[in-house]
Amino acid sequence: MAKRTFIYGAVILLAANFLNRVLGFIYQYLIMTHIGGEAFGLFNMVFPMYMFALVFTTAGIPLAVSKMISEAVSLQNYSRARSIFRTSLLLLTCSGLVISVTLYIISPLLAERFFPDPRVLRLFLICTPAIFVVSVSSAFRGYFQGMQNMLPTALSQICEQLVRVSVGFFSAYTLLPRGIEWAASGLALGMLSGEIIGLCIIILQYKLQKTKKSSHQDESLHPIQTMKELFHLAYPVTIGRLFSSGLSTVDAMLIPQRLQLAGYTAREATTLFGQLGGAVFTLLNFPSVFTFALATSLVPAISEAAARKQFQTVKLRSAQALRMTIFIGVPSLVILFFFAEPFSAFFKSEGTNSILRILALGGIFSYLQQTSTGILQGLGKVQLPVIHSIISAVIRIPILFILTASPQWGLKGTAVAYVVGFFISSTLNLAAIVHYTGMPVDLREFLLHPLMGGIGMMLAFRLLHPFFSFHPLAFLLEIILGAVLYFAILFLNGGINRDDLQRIPWVGKFLR
Fold it and tell me: Would you list the domain boundaries of the chain?
């Protein structure tokens, strides 16, 4: 029953994540084609700082809340679960309020001292209240996840994204005649509106739920003791997320500045930075929704097997997760590489096709980094991905600093730096997995089989493209034919077998 509940919850969150990713993809298209890269560049300068403040505010507490409430519910101690929720809600409300007010007061100083474009100030002022809203909302989401009820979180996320897309685009489009900074402020307003609606939806669902009574004497801890437990569970996650958000903030400050040294004006640098985030990384990250699904379904199984000391199962499931990540990542990146020009043009970012191709060449390491991080977390080695990210950043940032400021490289140098970072992080993660699990690295399965499929797919595109270039929509049929050929090659060379197909939910039952 627990397994079925987990699968049911995972499917709900996956469906919501996929829908939100599609909505986000549409949103990015509307922004890049109707608002422009410069407005998104301004917004993208502020967003990492907003995320850094948000991670600092919530401090990984929602995950800790989920774990503690889940343990209390397993003992049918619902009074304790409610006590944990009330304590976390008070804690996150207070921290969110303090950080929001503080950032609002010092926003002029931050905009003047740390950002290459002073037009970000208005965006800062709009974004800071969202920190308070998300902090409160995260307490409710941690509570529902601990109760193994994923539906409220999924519904609130979908409603949040729908409002963000509609209000953000409408506001930005309406305010665009007043100036780029006003259009960017419209995007920030959309984000704030979405977060408010998401909070309202999840509070409503909390009010409508049927509360259960404890089956035995209440064993609730004192609020101070509850806070101590929350912080003890939260700090490892907090360190990793703070580091990741901090790096994004550094990139948001550094890349536009270095582009100006390469010879671009401030507005041109802001536009290029917006195109990097709004077009290039939107395209590169879209396939990760599938690799995220793999990590979501396999990593808990790895954690369970490790706890039971079933080391052979750990090896098998780790290899399976990585192999399927490669099998899905390779065709996605072949598509991005070959169709870089029409994809860039689709987002009105024609000058970024070479940047997309560079990132596509090393994008497989980005996907492997995601899956391998999940595996290490499943093994209880939470600190290793953080250490590996630090090592990667120490090497990546100097490369970005030097190459981005070079007129010969510019944004291409930024892309090269990111690829180097992906490679180092994923390689260190994989080495750690091999060390702790003894997982054998079969180059035929991990490299040769998908490489053969990718080469076949690329050749098919070369042959088919002259016949399908008459209309952009024809590219879709070309991509489908290429993908069919890729998986046919994998099936023929043994990369995918009948057992693999039987593991696919809903599909596998028809092959048994």
Answer: 1-208+230-235, 263-441, 442-511
